[in-house]
Specification:
Number of domains: 1
Largest sheet: 7 strands, mixed
Order of helices and strands: EHEHHEEHEEHEHH
Oligomer: single chain
Distance between the termini: 15 Å
Helix content: 25-40%
Radius of gyration: 17 Å
Number of strands: 7
CATH architecture: Alpha-Beta Complex
CATH class: Alpha Beta
Length: about 190
């Protein structure tokens, strides 16, 4: 049965390829800001975003299995979006310095216009103190690639240098709780068990 990833994220695509999963990618176009405004907690918002993306693509492809996923960064109880520009990225990094980022990633499977399975997972990332010079040099090297990243980091890039400590699944941090997703795909006969 065809499997579709409802995402334009290069890292989510790469994770599925590296896991040997055959799929097609169709980016969902949900109003993320509107959904986030409805929720004050990251778990609910991330899960609703993942489900909304899967359901949107499922409406056009009801016979196919659709994977939706989303991630939200929370610091000091505030949810953050991807930075709008480099100045906002700088401001985010200054604010994150010396604090714990809670990264919530959610994934959902939908078919026939209904969510069949979904899950949220969290990771805690302790940001080390960051000097203004480090932030400038970091953004010189990583901008605009990190403009598409909630939290202003790519673990597959220089983002790892932001942190003193990381607790949680590597895949959750990359934006897709891959191990639980693989289990759900196996349970449905969509990948070999």
């Amino acid at each position: 049965m065809p499997l579709i990833l409802a995402s334009a994220s290069p890292i989510r695509r790469a994770l599925l390829v590296q896991a040997g999963i055959e799929y097609e990618a169709i980016a969902a176009t949900v109003d993320e800001a509107a959904i986030k405004k409805l929720h004050h907690d990251a778990d609910t918002a991330a899960l609703e975003l993942a489900e909304a993306k899967a359901l949107q693509v499922s409406a056009d492809r009801p016979a196919d299995w659709i994977i939706g996923s989303d991630s939200i960064v929370t610091v000091d109880g505030w949810m953050f979006d991807k930075p709008a520009d480099r100045a906002e990225a700088e401001a985010h990094l200054r604010l994150f310095a010396g604090k714990v980022i809670i990264l919530t990633s959610a994934v959902a499977l939908a078919r026939g216009g209904k969510v069949d399975w979904s899950l949220t997972d969290r990771a805690n990332l302790t940001v080390r103190p960051l000097s203004d010079r480090f932030i400038a040099d970091y953004l010189d090297a990583e901008w605009p690639a990190v403009s598409y990243c909630v939290g202003v980091f790519r673990m597959e890039g220089r983002g790892v240098a932001l942190f003193d400590r990381i607790e949680g699944s590597h895949f959750t941090i990359l934006g897709l709780p891959l191990l639980p997703l693989l289990g759900a795909l196996r349970a449905r006969g969509l990948v070999q068990s």
